[in-house]
Design a protein that fits this description.
The protein contains eight helices and 17 strands. With 364 residues, it is an alpha/beta fold. It has a nine-stranded mixed beta sheet, with helices on one face. The chain has a six-stranded antiparallel beta barrel with strand order 5-6-7-10-9-8. The longest helix has 13 residues, at 337-349. It is globular.
């Protein structure tokens, strides 16, 4: 089964959601990662010649040279799903932690399920009543603000959340299987260090420590930034005219060291590899007037879709994404719409594994 868009159709200034409608066979959606991680497949897409190669992920080493710079998102997923009970009724409830609003007041922005039964004033109990929260505000139909009733240090609260929480694997995986203990490591990059994401930067999941060491020995520079991937990563696009879509904002930081490495590589015409859509989004959110990278510490709602002029990365390492997703749109902006759709049709034909735990794509 192939892609539905007609490849000969070039995009205009206003792309449509329906142009990103793909039919991905269910059996190609990966429910578990490759073992080892770097044993997954790698589709290599050459933009200059419009040709495709089929490789294994560990072969990525052969496409880069000394002084090329690989930019990685070091955000760390925290176990954001808490399963608990309502006070008095004991009804099962699920709280999905989105972000901490106030350390001092223990306030968190969350999603709740079932939303209709969770009202302001309700107390929620987690574990063997180890952790208690009170609902203090309604924010959206499913959104709430909760206050943890906890007297210890904030670090102790985070340790308790880490102990009681479940890994927030993507909804389409969760619909087909339970969260497994292995997901806590599997749904995390080996270089994750900055806690704050509720979804993994999945292109980075393919790296092993051994492969990173081999890249280092070859002289390829590693540069880190942080973009905390939010629940917006799973939000569907609901408008046909893409110019009307608004992205959810995500917090990101680009340190001076990364800026120095990237800009030096740019001046010397080296490869700058963005590992993942979150990395690409961060890089393109902090471009100077002279089209160099700036340090950053803030929020971005940058939406990248065709046509788009990229200023920083000239190489893109990514996964195979869901139909009609903003992630697929970014891939199409970088590879070119027609070539991106051709690559996806080839991946379907060759039975690549799709989505977060699936195979990878390198766009040169």
């Amino acid at each position: 089964m192939g892609c539905q868009p007609i490849f000969a159709t070039q995009y205009s200034n206003t792309m449509k959601l329906s142009q990103f409608n793909l039919e991905i066979p269910e059996e190609l959606v990966a429910l578990h990662p490759s073992d080892p991680r770097d044993d997954c497949r790698l589709l290599v897409a050459h933009r200059d010649t419009q040709t495709i190669e089929h490789k294994t992920f560990k072969d990525v080493l052969g496409y880069f040279d000394e002084h090329d710079v690989m930019v990685l998102n070091n955000t760390k997923v925290f176990p954001a799903r808490l399963i608990g009970q309502k006070e008095k009724t004991g009804a099962r409830i699920e709280v999905f932690l989105l972000r901490e609003l106030s350390i001092k007041q223990r306030l968190w922005d969350v999603l709740v399920e079932p939303a209709r039964k969770i009202r302001v004033g309700n107390k929620l109990f987690f574990g063997d009543n180890d952790l208690v929260a009170e609902v203090v505000d309604n924010t959206t139909s499913r959104g709430r603000t909760i206050r943890f009733l906890f007297d210890g240090e904030n670090e102790e609260l985070h340790q308790l959340i880490d102990k009681l929480g479940k890994t927030p694997i993507p909804p389409y995986i969760q619909a087909k299987r339970e969260v497994e203990p292995e997901d806590r490591d599997n749904y995390q990059t080996v270089y994750a260090s900055e806690v704050g994401a509720v979804a993994a930067p999945t292109a980075g999941l393919h790296f092993t420590r051994e492969l990173l060491k081999r890249l280092e020995l070859k002289g390829i520079e590693e540069a880190f930034l942080t973009l905390h991937v939010g629940i917006g990563a799973f939000n569907p696009v609901e408008v046909e005219d893409l110019s009307k879509h608004r992205m959810a904002s995500e917090n990101y930081t680009i340190p001076d060291k990364t800026v120095e490495l990237v800009n030096n590589a740019k001046r010397n015409k080296r490869r700058i590899i963005a590992v993942g859509t979150s990395t690409m989004r961060a890089l393109e959110s902090s471009v100077s007037a002279s089209r160099m990278l700036n340090p950053a510490d803030g929020w971005t709602d940058r939406f990248i879709y065709p046509p788009f002029e990229f200023h920083i990365a000239n190489t893109f390492l990514t996964n195979f994404h869901r139909p009609k997703s903003t992630l697929l749109m970014m891939v199409a902006a970088f590879a070119g719409y027609d070539f991106a759709m051709q690559c996806y049709e080839e991946a379907i034909k060759e039975k690549y594994r799709f989505h977060s735990y699936g195979d990878a794509m390198l766009i040169l």
